[in-house]
C-alpha cells in the first residue's frame, strides 16, 4: 500500500535542488545542527562528547504536565546508562488503557538523545496527538559502542517492560499502558534500530505480555555499497550528505565491515530470512532525502517477503522533516501515525 501525501504547497519541481524552500527558522536549526555535528566529528573517527555537552540544549523531565504531557526518566541498566524518557498524556486517565510506543531517536547512531530539546518536543507531540505513552530510549552511541549495541539496548528495554519494570518504576503510567498494544517507532538511525529490535522481538521466543502491533520507520537509515540515484542527485543535502553518512557507517559498523553489512543493506546480498512474526510496518519517505531509494527498497523487501507494509511519501520533505512543527507535513505525519496505531492495536494478540 502506497500513500502519496500532498506537498506543503503547490510548486514546480527543481530536480537540481538539494532541499525545497524552507522557513528561515527551519533552515537556521538545520544549519546549526549540521555545524555542531560536523565540528564534533574528529578525523580519527571519534566524537568530541565534551564539546557536544556544551552545544546540545537539554530539557529536564517534568513531573507536572507541560503541553499536556508529563515526563519521567526511567533507568533500565545504570551500568551502561540505559534509560528511557517516559511521556504520559495528562488526558489519558479517562480513556482506558492506551498503546505504548517505544521510540528510538535519530542521529546516525552517534548523536542526540531523548532529553535533547528537539526529541523532547516531538515526543510530546506524538504522545498527545496519538494518545499513547511514549518510551524514548537512550541507547548507547557509536563509535564508543558499535553495532550491535543499540539493538541489544532496544531489546533489553522491551524485556524490562515485559518483566514489569514500568510497574515498579512508574505505577501510574503502568496502569494506563496496554502492553499487548506496543509499537516500535524511530526516525533515521532510530528507524534502523526499530527494524532490528522488531526482528529480535519476533525471534525472541516467549514474551509474557508484550506484543508488537506494528513498526513506524520514519525515513530509516539504511544503505549499501551502491550509490543510488537519489544519493548522487542529493549528495549535498542537509544533515545526511553522503560525506556524513559514510562517516557514520564507519563509526558504527564492526571494524572491517562495509556498507553491504546486513544491518545496513537489510535486504541485500547478505540478508538473513525475515522472521515470521515480524510486525506490520509503516515506512515514511521524503522526496528530498538522499536515503529515499534505500527506504523504498526496504518497503519493497517487506512486501516481497509477505509482510504487511505501508509506504507514506512526502514529495517535498527533507530528512527529519517531522521534527519541525512549522512544516505542514509534520502534523500530517503524526496524524497518520495515530491512524496506523489505532488500526493495528491489539491485532497481534494471541
Describe it for me?
A 9-stranded mixed β-sheet has the order 1-9-8-7-6-4-5-3-2, sandwiched between helices. The two termini are 25 Å apart. Helix 3 (117-130) packs across helix 11 (328-344) and helix 4 crosses helix 7. Helices cover 35% and strands 18% of the residues. The chain is an alpha/beta fold and 350 residues long. InterPro entries: AB_hydrolase_3 (IPR013094), AB_hydrolase_fold (IPR029058), Carboxylest/Gibb_receptor (IPR050466).
Task: Summarize this structure as a short list of keywords or feature phrases.
18% strand; 350 residues; 9 strands; alpha/beta; globular; 9-stranded mixed beta sheet; single chain; 11 helices
Short description:
The chain is an alpha/beta fold and 350 residues long. The chain has helices at residues 24-40, 49-55, 117-130, 149-162, 165-169, 171-174, 189-203, 229-233, 242-252, 292-304, 328-344, and strands at 2-4, 69-77, 82-89, 98-104, 133-138, 177-187, 212-218, 281-286, 309-314. Strands 1-9-8-7-6-4-5-3-2 form a nine-stranded mixed sheet, sandwiched between helices.
Kindly report the spatial arrangement of strands forming the biggest sheet: 1-9-8-7-6-4-5-3-2
The main pleated sheet reads as:
9 strands, mixed
Number of strands: 9
| Mean pLDDT across every amino acid position | 93
SSE class: alpha/beta
- State Rg: 19 Å
Q: Give the number of helices.
A: 11
Distance between the first and last residues' Cα: 25 Å
Low-pLDDT segments, ≥5 res: 7-15
Based on CA inertia axes, which overall geometry fits? Answer: globular
* Beta-strand content estimate: 15-25%
Helix content: 25-40%
Amino acid at each position: 500500500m502506497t500513500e502519496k501525501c500532498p506537498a506543503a504547497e503547490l510548486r514546480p519541481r527543481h530536480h537540481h535542488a538539494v532541499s525545497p524552500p524552507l522557513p528561515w527558522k527551519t533552515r537556521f536549526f538545520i544549519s546549526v545542527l549540521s555545524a555542531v555535528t560536523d565540528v564534533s566529528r574528529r578525523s580519527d573517527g571519534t566524537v568530541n562528547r565534551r564539546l557536544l555537552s556544551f552545544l546540545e540544549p537539554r530539557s529536564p523531565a517534568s513531573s507536572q504536565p507541560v503541553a499536556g504531557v508529563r515526563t519521567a526518566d526511567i533507568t533500565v541498566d545504570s551500568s551502561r546508562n540505559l534509560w528511557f524518557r517516559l511521556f504520559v498524556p495528562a488526558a489519558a486517565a479517562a480513556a482506558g488503557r492506551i498503546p505504548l510506543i517505544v521510540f528510538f531517536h535519530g542521529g546516525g547512531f552517534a548523536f542526540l538523545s531523548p532529553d535533547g530539546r528537539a526529541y523532547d518536543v516531538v515526543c510530546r507531540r506524538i504522545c498527545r496527538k496519538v494518545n499513547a505513552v511514549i518510551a524514548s530510549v537512550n541507547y548507547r552511541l557509536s563509535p564508543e559502542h558499535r553495532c550491535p549495541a543499540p539493538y541489544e539496548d532496544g531489546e533489553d528495554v522491551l524485556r524490562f517492560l515485559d518483566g514489569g519494570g514500568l510497574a515498579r518504576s512508574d505505577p501510574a503510567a503502568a496502569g494506563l499502558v496496554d502492553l499487548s498494544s506496543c509499537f516500535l517507532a524511530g526516525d533515521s538511525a532510530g528507524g534502523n534500530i526499530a527494524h532490528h529490535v522488531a526482528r529480535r522481538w519476533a525471534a525472541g521466543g516467549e514474551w509474557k505480555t508484550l506484543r508488537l502491533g506494528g513498526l513506524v520507520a520514519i525515513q530509516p537509515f539504511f544503505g549499501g555499497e551502491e550509490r543510488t540515484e537519489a544519493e548522487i542527485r542529493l549528495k549535498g543535502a542537509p544533515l545526511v550528505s553522503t560525506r556524513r553518512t559514510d562517516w557514520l557507517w564507519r563509526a558504527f559498523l564492526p571494524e572491517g565491515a562495509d556498507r553491504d553489512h546486513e544491518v545496513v543493506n537489510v535486504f541485500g546480498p547478505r540478508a538473513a530470512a525475515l522472521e515470521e512474526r515480524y510486525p506490520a510496518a509503516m515506512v515514511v519517505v521524503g522526496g528530498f532525502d538522499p536515503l529515499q531509494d534505500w527506504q523504498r527498497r526496504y518497503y519493497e523487501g517487506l512486501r516481497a517477503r509477505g509482510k504487511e507494509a505501508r509506504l507514506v511519501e512526502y514529495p517535498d520533505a527533507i530528512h527529519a522533516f517531522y521534527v519541525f512543527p512549522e512544516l505542514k507535513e509534520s502534523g500530517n505525519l503524526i496524524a497518520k501515525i495515530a491512524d496506523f496505531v489505532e488500526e493495528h492495536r491489539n491485532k497481534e494478540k494471541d
